Amino acid sequence: MATPLSLVKERFESKEKLVAAVEKLATKELWVGRVNDVKGLKRASNKKLIRLHDLLEDAKKRFGNRDKLIQSIAELAQRPKDKDWVARLASRPLAQLLDMHRSFDRAAKARAKAGVPEKKPKKEKKPMVKKPSTKPAAAKAEAPKAEAKPVEKKAEAKPKTEKAEKSKPSASKPAASKEPAAKKPAAKKSAKKEE
Residues of 27-56 as b/e, b for ≥16 C-beta within 10 angstroms? Predict the structure, then answer.
């Protein structure tokens, strides 16, 4: 197995040229800059730089930019109209996006192989229209008034007093005992162990 240093020397001749190649591919179209300004890419390991270069190169060839990659993920996940989810995808790093694309692509191929149909878009619901009633309007108006009067009389019949409520103990709280709790005897220390 080739070491990262040997791969760098074989493909790019030196680490500086590898860093330059990664910086050239890491444009705003593909890359979300999360690199430390002080350390930069020069301090990253050879293995990380090679992997990053391969990811950037792959994304550039297959999709061109991040937006096309994100749209492709949304279509494979069958969520192209979910704007919030798509906006959250935009903040993810390129490696995660490519990994998501690979997994959703596999799932779509498995669904196609199994013969599962794609999700159909939901039909828009028509707004409900209130239909006119067949009952005469006068009968409707009298019925609620007749029911409202007895309800008011029942409410007046049972007035509650504050004194009656205070004198009754609450059923949910147990009555507190006035006696203090009994003390448990202290554990005696065992005699010194004989050697």
Answer: eeebbeeeeeeeeebeebebeebbebbebb
| pLDDT at residue 157 in the model | 54
Cβ count near 76 (within 10 Å) = 19
Q: CA 72, CA 80: separation in Å to the nearest integer?
A: 9
| pLDDT for position 35 | 67
Burial class (CB in 10 A: 0-12, 13-18, 19+), 9: middle
Q: What is the pLDDT of residue 21?
A: 86
Q: Which residues of the chain have pLDDT under 50?
A: 194-195
Please state, in angstroms and as integers, the Cα–Cα distance from residue 83 to each residue in 72, 78, 89, 103, 120, following that order: 14, 12, 10, 21, 18
pTM more than 0.70: no
Q: What per-residue confidence (pLDDT) applies to 195?
A: 46
Residue spans per domain, the chain: 1-62, 64-118
For residue 137 the two structure tokens come to 């309007």
Q: Using CB atoms within 10 A of its CB, is residue 60 exposed (0-12), middle (13-18) or buried (19+)?
A: middle
The identity of residue 140, as a single letter, is K
- Taking a C-beta distance cutoff of 8 angstroms, is the pair 66, 97 a contact? yes
Question: Which H or E run contains 98?
Answer: helix 94-114
